[in-house]
Design a protein that fits this description.
The chain is an alpha/beta fold. The protein has 2 domains: 109 residues, Immunoglobulin-like (Sandwich), CATH 2.60.40.1180; 272 residues, TIM Barrel (Alpha-Beta Barrel). It contains 11 helices and 20 strands. The strands form 3 sheets. Strands 1, 12, 13, 14, 15, 16, 17, 18, 19 and 20 form a 10-stranded mixed sheet that branches. The chain has an 8-stranded parallel beta barrel with strand order 2-3-4-5-6-7-8-9, surrounded by 6 helices. Strands 10-11 form a two-stranded antiparallel ribbon.
Length: 494
């Protein structure tokens, strides 16, 4: 959740570059037969998927309203439908089947008029309430009512993995006195002497939720995009640049504050995958030891493989904890859908992420502007993965534009492939390792045409053990093969 939430125009520049960074291969077909793409799926195993999720944060204020914004989905029936679309069981309805919820512990900004002027926010609801109104105030657990409600609604629908995250310390712990950033870009805003108090604040909130709300956060991420030079006082959202020294101090202090709890420290949520690699390479033993889980955003970066190698060497789990698309005027819905589809493939296949989360549904996933949630192309592209590759599935090694995963009982093989071309393409997936010639395949497809939204058609593995499918232009296709036992699974090289 970075620069774009302050400046849509500058975000567009990022988005133009990102498809290439995330492996969106544009195959240009010739005048004759359709282009042909190939992929091979092996039985080598990678990580086990813990789940799919999103950040609640502003979205809760969008749905239910806040002290600062009216609800955009005021009808209770439509609110329930909205949550069903996100966290509903995919075997019983049209939901994405998310099971991971990231809860934003707000810092809360300076209430003094004119001290931290905030221009109109990029998204409604971006002003978050903290649980402390000021230094010396008592904790007010009635605050942040909408996000707490959304958290419980997610849990009631099956969410079982919870993470707390912070975008900024409370305003009085900052140098500028504003939760939106320092006076000058690229400077630390968290006061060095306030690091222990900030860690204690986060730990106090986590403990309250465990005891009083019945929510056990498994991890706590204290920083958000510390590599961002866009966090400045008077900005449109909470945020804070953090030097490597500050990141390390916060991680160590939070680990101490959480001692005795089951929550681990996660982070440090770099906007760029390359920056995250650099941070990990420079961190000292104390901060690396305190960091229980690596979280990274997918907005930027050219070498996700380098990050995977670094995290693997450290022996830590990795979450692709945030990405979103697209704010540019004239951007087609399907372009955003392909971006998100390829972000998922990169996260699971290249980064070996155990969890993948997007930012907010109203960033092109669900349109709720008229109070009636309407799934967009991104929703269906995400669903091509989340509805079929469920928590507990094992990701397999694969090639090309294909992601492969196997169910815990090894009887359901799921493949998801993208065709980023403006022309149809014949996709040849080599499944000979699975010894299932002639196996039936259920194909589900999403394309530019709204009528093609998880549209079903039958298919079959041919006698040579290949699945050959003609994919429509600009489409995402999921192939489900039941009863596909694998006699011996290997392990992919780290």
């Amino acid at each position: 959740m970075g620069e774009a939430r302050r400046s849509p125009g500058r975000r567009c520049t990022q988005l133009v570059r990102l498809p290439a960074l995330l492996g969106l291969a544009l195959v240009l077909a010739g005048a004759g037969d359709p282009a042909r793409t190939t992929a091979k799926v092996s039985t080598d195993t990678q990580q086990t998927l813990r789940g799919w999720g999103m950040s609640l944060a502003w979205e809760a204020n969008v749905i239910y309203g806040s002290p600062f914004d009216a609800a955009r989905v005021p009808d209770p029936a439509e609110q329930r439908r909205y949550m069903d679309l996100l966290y509903g069981n995919p075997s019983r309805g049209p939901g994405l089947g998310l099971n991971v919820a990231r809860y934003n512990i707000g810092g809360g900004d300076n209430p003094e008029p004119g001290r931290c002027p905030a221009p109109p926010v990029v998204q409604p609801g971006a002003r978050m309430e903290g649980f402390l109104a000021g230094p010396g105030a008592q904790y007010d657990w009635s605050r942040d009512r909408s996000q707490r409600r959304m958290l419980h609604e997610a849990k009631a629908r099956g969410a079982n993995v919870f993470e707390a995250f912070s975008n900024s310390a409370p305003w009085w712990m900052t140098v500028s006195g504003c939760a939106s950033g320092a006076e000058r870009a690229g400077e630390d805003n968290l006061r060095a002497d306030a690091v222990p108090a900030f860690a204690a604040y986060l730990a106090k909130v986590v403990e309250h939720f465990r005891r009083k709300e019945g929510i056990a956060f498994g991890s706590v991420s204290p920083l958000n995009e510390p590599d961002g030079a866009w966090w400045v006082a008077g900005g449109r959202q909470e945020g804070s640049f953090a030097s490597l020294a500050t990141q390390e101090a916060v991680v160590v202090a939070l680990a101490r504050a959480l001692a005795g709890s089951r929550a681990k420290v996660s982070g440090t949520e770099a906007n760029s995958m390359d920056a995250m690699t650099g941070f990990l390479a420079q961190m000292g033993a104390a901060s690396l030891g305190a960091l229980g889980q690596v979280n990274v955003h997918q907005y930027n970066g050219t070498d996700p493989e380098a990050l995977r190698r670094r995290v693997s060497a450290l022996g830590k789990p990795l979450w692709a904890s945030e990405v979103g698309c697209c704010l540019s005027a004239g951007q087609s819905e399907m372009a955003g859908a392909l971006f998100m589809a390829n972000a998922i493939r990169t996260a699971l296949r290249v980064l070996h992420a155990e969890v993948w989360c997007f930012w907010q549904p109203d960033w092109g996933v669900i349109d709720a502007r008229n109070g009636h949630p309407r799934p967009l192309r991104q929703f269906y592209a995400i669903a091509q993965y989340t509805r079929f590759i469920r928590p507990g599935f094992t990701v397999l090694s694969s090639q090309g534009d294909t992601l492969a995963a196997l169910s815990p009982d090894r009887r359901r093989l799921v493949l998801v492939a993208t065709n980023g071309s403006g022309e149809s393409a014949v996709h040849d997936i080599d499944l000979t390792a699975f010894r299932r010639p002639g196996a039936a395949v259920a194909i589900y497809r999403t394309a530019e045409d709204p009528a093609v939204s998880l549209a079903y058609e039958p298919g079959r593995v041919n006698d040579a053990g290949h699945l050959i499918d003609r994919q429509p232009p600009a489409s995402v296709s999921t192939y489900v093969i039941e009863e596909a036992p694998v006699a011996a699974l290997g392990h992919a090289a780290p």
